[in-house]
Amino acid sequence: MRPETLFLIGVWLVFVILEIYQKKFFNKPREKSSDGIVEIVTGVMLLFFIQPFVVASGYFLTSQVVPDAQDLILNWPFLVVFGLLLLFDDLTQYWWHRTVHNVPILYHLHRPHHEAEYLSVRIVYRNNPFYYLFMPSLWFSGMLLFLGSGWVYVVYICMKMTVIYGAHSDIRWDKPLYKIKWLSPLMWFVERTISTPATHFAHHGKYKSDPNTNYKGNYGNFLFLWDVIFGTAIITRDYPKEFGVENLKSAPMFYQIFWPFVQPPKELIQNSNE
What we know:
By secondary structure, this protein is mainly alpha-helical. The protein has one domain. It contains 13 helices and no strands. The longest helix is centred in the N-terminal third of the chain and has 31 residues, at 35-65.
């Protein structure tokens, strides 16, 4: 097993252990009987099938279109390659995430993620498989690997996924840091740069009337900076009272996993992107 894979498994397990110790990892508040199944099935499909296929396909297509460009950026400065990854992977993921929230037909792909009425590292990969199949960032990752992003990509993906795990986990690691006065300037910078529990929890907030909810915003995955730049950021340093989507009826398990092959009941369609 590759070192970066072991690292990410280790980081994920750290948050799992903390959630078990401080919260309820296996029995979340408002958890439905199908939630665990959806999370396991979608996670396995992504990590073992969809992601390897898409990244490999991006690599292969690039090799066919520009075969002479292999390892073109291999010896480029670290920060330049890292910057390319931020632009082609993280920025495109921001726009993909924002798009599926604002195009009703595409929202079916992301709806499973917001069906969970709780936050946890359990839901990081909870999306319809087609959400990842069509995600531009994964295709661009394959392209950049062909171009020679190599070890820079390894560093980048370890940093990115650590932030994403931390932003989804029920462990609100930023909360005690906000209370330390001398850390205030640092936290001002951090919360405007990367996703934190406070900023990402707002995206999962249930009620529009809750001042700590920003369902149609706070889209950033690794960098929250994209939200700051493109005007979709709300920063409150507090957390929503409840999670989910207001007025959204619970969706059947097979629809969440297998749409468009399994269609939702009619009553779900009209409010699927509220």
